[in-house]
Structures are given as structure tokens and as C-alpha cells.
């Protein structure tokens, strides 16, 4: 008998079907991957199971019994637990406090913290999850935080664990370690649903896989019976285009963007440590590294959003170290932020107003002191057409556009007027394969136009795909800058990303 | 469907408000029909009563506009009341100091003075917010008490009318008074000042690059910063304009209506302004409509008290009910508004 069975689940948002008649079965003790592009309805389906969304129609059976959860609390009572893509932890509390958060333990409100800690450690060690129960969440790495989330579920006796994109922020080595934990969980009789869009990981970890596309389930198969090519075809409905990087010879004679021993100190901590880098016109330099090792700081120092403590930043030989954000952008820098909701867009403003975010100081758009609305609308219309942005209208607030279309608007804005440099931080985060390909092609297009591009991505594959050179960033230091050739030693890069310099040196010998 | 659901939800609010008003009227033992007819005739009954609505709406429009401008850039101004009084102080000072100027010069001067005084009263909290991150909700509110006390001191000392034993200033010189528009009413040129301000603010906030920056900062300061917009500058600017408009409200009340400075020239306009801005969705046109609506509610309830013996405090209760219902609308009528 199936442990969990979801039958004909349908759910629509704003009249758009997110799930249409989706069926999903889970056997006890299996790792089942849920594969699909972003927006295919994977997370929606799991949120319906977990009681976060209500379904429009369909039934859910848990151990043969018909269930209907209206909140995660209900789901947890039935021993179902979920780790969201964005962790739900309180940074100012300790690991132990986070794990027992919301539970009324014996003796509440005077809980015996020592006894609890012992239980937590016992649970954690059983599955090889190493954690310091007294550490504060804010001091933990992403990988460690993920462990806390998993321990939290195990502590609540979860029999089924739902993991939403669990490997998105991990290094290759951390991922391997994480998969080991999953295998131990499976051996112990737990079932796992893992949501992902990374096919190689599915091949290595899952027993069965269900593919969703546009809200429909396309196929469910044993992983051993299906190939990577078949999976990718099921997932995107067509063959993937292979992106080709052609050599670009730049003869513009300009210097591009250069950093000279740039350091950043904040609150007594060294965020960036004497970084030097030059990006020639027509070159893409990719930065590989685990999130939170200074990527954001690096990007924001170049843009002038934060001020470096020392060092110089030049653009075509012009020292812009002390310029404002606006002055730097006017030198021709396009900026794609990793957090489009917070940094890149004003979600409650229309498309037109978001285009203005970069152009409102541009003389072309101002007539007699007033904004030339007609011209801005024309510009926005052009962006919508050129970048095939799907929107009900130019006045629609950005909030109602899909992630891919929001990102396209940022591209349209930041790539307008042939910038001399583009700082792209996680430009394809959260995008489906089609949109990702589009963004990557745009970057290559600008590369061949002689643009200097800094590409920062947590996705090593992407860095390898697009970059001419790869810089590895760890704790604010460049661990090395390597030309991206077929001879590149990947495990060496992986070790450097984790800061293991000596092991990486052994690897390279 | 979406528009229809929205309409229904507002009708629902109207219905609930009406039911609660009826209950309250029954509770004080008055006849409902008499209460409603006297309410309506209190507003539309005569030329004078309609003009009274406009008189009350004038300070509400100006202060409400000020609060709205602040909200647009994330400056929550609870201090319109104090800023209004600072404007009132400004006009009295200037009028007695330069007492022989002709109206042509004097009127623009006192309006400017009121703007500056009210603006300063609001820029100080604005600066504290922009520079040190101190909550403007607290500081603007506290500044109200300071302003009220300053008025109290001034009307007993520096600005006191020596000919009177009451704590109030002498009558302003003629040059500093706003003309009455219609001779048999109290309606003064302040309403024109208010409407001109509405147009100017609309132009500034919705049509200029500066206004665009202010709105962007209000909706997403982080994205604004990343785009090179100075959050600091825009908070300072919007707090200045926000307080300045409330200051002009004070000028209009003194120059147009009371013709002298005294305590209690505002029965809480600066606080009702927050409701005006809220109901008007922080849009200049919305502010005018909601200011007129609230003014009518107050004037009408006076009529209700006179003719049907229903206490005016009912109007405050109803105002509170409307605000609550509007704030709770999306949860109350969730089924109607699935798409919002």
C-alpha cells in the first residue's frame, strides 16, 4: 500500500492552473524526486499536501486514510514535515531553541534544556548530522542551517520529509554528504520527497521520479529505468539547446573593469580581503563559491552600494572608487542583482515605473521638469516586445508577473544602451530552463559586443558554461583564478570553494 | 468579476456601517428616520450647511495631503496636528511683525512662513529617521505635545492680546486675513489654497522625477538605494513637504477662520488627517474626496444632535467603524475577493 497518495489534485492561481489533475504516489521507505522547471507546480503540489495552500479539487490519502490539512501543524501531527527552500529559522535563537520552537515540552515553561539537548544530539547523531546545539543560527553556514531544519523534523518524529530544492546552496562536497544523510534516513524507514530541477542529482539519489510540466504530471518512473536525456525531454518538452561560447577577440583597446586590492571591513569583520581582478572587454569572469562568502559584498562594492575600506575600482581607466551609485551606473554599468524582489524591482510599481528606476534621471525622459510619460511607455513597450515579457499590460504591478518575466524586465532595463560592463549576480536564480537559456544567451551576446561581465552564480554548472575565467571566492578571498578550459580540475574548484586549500593543492598535483 | 466583487465588498462596508449607526441611534433612544433626515438636512439643508462642509474640509484636505505625501515615501507622519499649530504660530508672528504689508504680499508670505514652520517641525523627525533610524511615529507624535505647549505659552506671553484677559492673540491685521468667498458664510479662500496644493502635490508626486524617487523610496528603499536614489534625501524632502502642508492648514485656519491665534483652533484635524489619507489611499484626489466625506459626516452629525438629540460623538464612532471595516475588508470579504 502506498504511504501517500495524492489523486487528481487541481489548484489555480489568478485563473492560471498551477496543478491540473496531478496524481502522485509515494511508497514507504523511498526517495522520490519531484522534477520540473520553475513554475511547473512542484512546490505548489507539496504546499497543498503540507496544508499551506488549499486545493481546488482532488483527494489526499495518507496511509490509506483520507486526510485534509489546513495548516502545517496538522501535517506535522501526521508525521509529515517539510523543509522550505528558504529556511524557517530564527537567527537570534540557538539551534536547540529553534528545534523545540513551538513545542510544549515536559515541564513547560520551565523546560530542562540539558535533557532536550541530549535528545536532540542523539537524534542528530543517529543520522550522522553533526551540529552544535548551542550555536546561534546566525553563525551557521547554509549547509548547517539545513541540517537544523532536518533535525527539527526528525525531532518531531516526521516519517515523511519533503525537501524543496535542498541542494541549491550547497557545494558539490556538501551535496554528497547531504545525500549520505538521505540514504541513512531511507535505511531507517523514512520516506523522502525531494523537489529539484537538477537531473544529475536525481539520478544519483532517487528511487523513483515524477516529472511535472505546466501543472500536469508527465511521467512517473523508476530512476533506474530512465535516462537523463529522457528526463530533460519530459521536463521541458523539447531538446535542450547547447550553448556555445565562441572566442571573442577584443580590439577596443579599453581596459574594462578592474579591481585593485579591494577590501571591505564591516562591523569589525573582514568581508572582502584584498581582491584584485581585471575583466577585459568581451570577457566573462565567473565567480564560483558558496553563497555568503562575500559575493554580495563584492558586487555591491563595485556598484558603490557599499563603500570599500581600501583599494581602487576602475572602469576603462577612470577611477570610480569614490563615485556614487548613480555616477557609476552612468559610466555604463548594468546591474542584475541576486535579489530581484528587494534590490532590483519595486514590486508594487508598474512595468513603466520599474523601467524608470534606472532612467528617471535621464534627460531624454524629462520634459519641462516633468517625466515624459509617453516616451517612457514607448520604451517599456519596446522592452516588452524585445524581451517577450508576458504581461497583461504596462500598468500591471510587477508583483503579478512570473519570476522569469520580472527578471526579463531587469535585463531589458540594465542591458539597454549597450552597457560597457554588466555585473550579473545570480542572473538565472529561480528561472525555468527556457528563461535561463535566454538570460545566458543575452550575456553571451553582450560579451561578443565587447562588454566586461562579472558573473556570480551559486550554480557551478552555469559558471562553467559561460565564463572565460573562473575565480573562486571563499570568505572574501580569491582562492585562485583559473582559465576555463576543458582541463580545469573540478574537484579542485570544489575543495577551494570549501576553503580546503591544502587538499586542493594535493588534488592539483 | 473582480471589479464586481470589489464593489460588493464596499457595499458590504456601507451596509455594516449603516446597521451599526442605526443600532447606535436606537441605543440613545432616538427615532432613526428623524435622525437620518436631520443628518442629511444638516449637510444639504441649506447653502450655509454645504459651505460649512467645505470650511471643515479645508484643513482636512491640507493635513490629509501632508500625511499622504509622507506615507508615499514611507514617512508615517502622526504629527500633522503639531505642524498645523506651528503654521498657526508662523502666520501670527509674521502678521504682527510686518503688520503694514499689503495683502498681495502678506498672504503669500504667511503661507510660505506656515509651510516653513510646519516643515521644520516635521523635518526634525524626518532627519532623526533618515540619519539614526529613530521611529518617526514616536517623534512626530511627541512633537505634537511640544507644539501645543508652545502655543499655550505664546498666547499667554509674547502674542497675548493686551486688551483681553483670555489667552489669545489680538485680531490679525486686515492684510493677513484670507478673504471670505461668500459673504453670508464662513467659507474663506483657504479652500482655494487647499485645492491648488492638491494640484501641485499631484504634479510633484506623480509627474516629476523627484516625486518618482519619493514613491520608489516609499515602496522599496533597498531597491531605490541599489538604483542610486538617495533614501536620506527623499525622506528629508517628503517630511518637509508633509509638515509644510499641515503648516499651511494652520495658516488657513488662523487667517481664514479665526483671525487670531488661540488654543484649540484644531479639534484634532491633524489626527483625522491620518484617516483622510488612509481612506483616500494616499492619492491627492482620494484625499479631497475623503476629506469632504469626513467633513460632511461631522457637519451632518451636528445637525443630528440639534434636531434629533443624537450626540455628535456618534460621528467619531462611525468614523472609527469605517476605518476598521476598510482595514479589515480583505479578510472580511475574502470570498468575494479571491483575486485581489
TrEMBL record, chain A:
Q: Which PROSITE patterns match?
A: ABC_TRANSPORTER_1, ABC_TRANSPORTER_2
Q: Sorted alphabetically, which Pfam families does this protein's record hold?
A: ABC_tran
Q: Which UniProt keywords apply?
A: ATP-binding, Cell membrane, Membrane, Nucleotide-binding, Repeat, Sugar transport, Translocase, Transport
Where is the protein found, in the record's own terms? Cell membrane
- Provide the membrane topology annotation: Peripheral membrane protein
Molecular function GO labels: ATP binding; ATP hydrolysis activity
What main location does UniProt list? membrane
The cellular component terms of Gene Ontology attached to this UniProt record, alphabetical and capped at eight, are:
plasma membrane
Q: Does the record bear Translocase in its keywords?
A: yes
Record-linked InterPro entries = AAA+_ATPase, ABC_carbohydrate_import_ATPase, ABC_transporter-like_ATP-bd, ABC_transporter-like_CS, P-loop_NTPase
Q: Where is the ABC transporter domain?
A: 4-239, 257-500
Name of the protein in its database record? Simple sugar transport system ATP-binding protein
Q: What organism is recorded for this protein?
A: Desulfosporosinus hippei DSM 8344
From TrEMBL, chain B:
The topology of this chain with respect to the membrane is: Multi-pass membrane protein
Q: Per the record, GO CC terms?
A: plasma membrane
Q: Which residues form the signal peptide?
A: none
Q: What is this protein called?
A: Simple sugar transport system permease protein
Q: Which UniProt keywords apply?
A: Cell membrane, Membrane, Sugar transport, Transmembrane, Transmembrane helix, Transport
List the InterPro entries hit by this protein, alphabetically.
ABC_transp_permease
Task: Give the stretches traversing the membrane.
Answer: 7-27, 47-70, 82-99, 105-128, 140-159, 187-206, 227-249, 310-328
Q: Which GO terms describe its molecular function?
A: transmembrane transporter activity
The places in or outside the cell where this protein is found are:
Cell membrane
Question: In which organism is this protein found?
Answer: Desulfosporosinus hippei DSM 8344
The primary site where this protein sits is membrane
